[in-house]
Amino acid sequence: MKTLKTTILLLTICLAASANDGVYFVSGSQLVPISDTDISCAKEVLTIDLNDDGFARVDVQYEFFNRGQAKTVDMGFEASAPYNDGEDLNTSGRHPHIFDFTVKLNGETLSYSNAIIKEDTNFEVLDMKKWRQDTESDGMTLINPTTKETTGYSYAYVFKAQFKAGKNLIHHTYRYRMSNGIGRTFEVPYWLTPAKRWANHQIDDFTLRIKTSSFKQFMIEAKLFSGSQFKVVSGKGKVRKAVYKDIEDHIEIALRNGTVEWHKMNFDPSDNFDIMSSDTYSFMNEDYLLGEFYDRSDGYIPRWSMQYSKEDKRILRNLPYANRGYVFKDKGLQAYFNKIWWYMPDPSWKQDTSDFTKREWDLVNGRLNEE
Q1: Alpha carbons 292 and 322: distance in angstroms, whole number
Q2: Cβ distance 73 to 161 under 8 Å?
Q3: CB-based burial of residue 338 (10 Å sphere; 0-12 exposed, 13-18 middle, 19+ buried)?
Q4: SS3 of the chain: helix, strand, coil, percent, to 5
């Protein structure tokens, strides 16, 4: 759990350094055994769907192997406390930013209970009659009013799993709110290190899939995902080494209505990862192009200015079309968008504007400075 605490601390520092209105909601995470077990994680297909509504949807297909007799295993899911989210502590133990939590074992839906647990422990449940949220801290700390003791905490989902001998399949799904802040349209942190709690201390066959049904432009640190390449397996997409200053150790992905995939055998989940919108670093570059970063969510606002030039306004009006692959007949626009890395021409696009967001219509209609 020390690694998890360090991850949250670093993320908190990052958010605070950006601006006071940076907010961390929660990290996605793995299902784990609460006590020692001889069951191994033979396979995992982790799918993260990046949506325009501010949520990431997680779908995990696990294959576990029980070499012994049938047994009952206490299992859990740890969800970190939010930072700067403006919400009060939910003493029921259900995380305020996680929704539609389901677990199926061998086709049977499992019931679960919730609790507030002490961080850096093996799901040690806190008696909430003795603890309250420390309002003078960052929101990630509890205090015992009697002893003045403080502790970090997490939300927990716990359940009993009846494992048969041999292969067992678990299907786990949930949605969680993306974090965000100044210079970050979205950030999706995910904890992989808890997977080392299984008997084999690895994932024998691991696949990560990142999907979007619209368009997302994002980065992910390359260190954990070395030794193999992200591949676009559906839709339109591009993958490259990030070119932004001080972030060359990241991979950048532009993905339109598709899926990008990474796969490795005998995968060591030795670190956690973040999926970060590319504006995290692209906006810091002094020479960046208008539209170098693009996101279809209504919360995204292109480089804000009170003094757009005539050409700027023309580019902004055409950004939603370029993002969908429109092939421009105007040579000036075509030359401009050919410089934009995420631009992926699609001659088959029929100029269907039915999925344009309110913000995109604002751009098309020249309402450039309205939020």
Answers
A1: 12
A2: yes
A3: exposed
A4: 15, 40, 45
Environment class of residue 42 by beta-carbon count within 10 Å: exposed (0-12), middle (13-18) or buried (19+)?
middle
Which amino acid is residue 349, in one-letter code?
A: W
Q: Residues in the chain, how many?
A: 371
Q: How far is 6 from 1, CA to CA, in rounded Å?
A: 9
Three-state SS at 203: strand
Q: Which of 189, 157, 155, 156 is nearest to 50 (CA)?
A: 189
Amino acid at 352: D
What are the Cα distances from residue 342, in Å, to 149, 175, 199, 306?
51, 27, 42, 26
CA atoms of 254 and 257, how far apart (whole Å): 10
Sequence-distant (≥ 6) Cβ neighbours of residue 250 within 8 angstroms: 219, 220, 221, 222, 241, 242, 244
At residue 156, what is the residue type?
A: A
Distance, CA of 2 to CA of 64 (rounded, Å): 25
Look-up of token digits 């066959």: 205
For the full predicted model, state whether its pTM sits above 0.70: yes
Q: What confidence tens digit (pLDDT) does each residue in 176-185 have?
A: 999 998 778 9
What interhelical angle do 310-323 and 331-338 show, nearest 10?
70
What would the pLDDT profile of 218-269 be if each residue is shown by its tens digit? 999 988 998 789 999 999 999 999 887 777 789 999 999 999 999 999 999 9
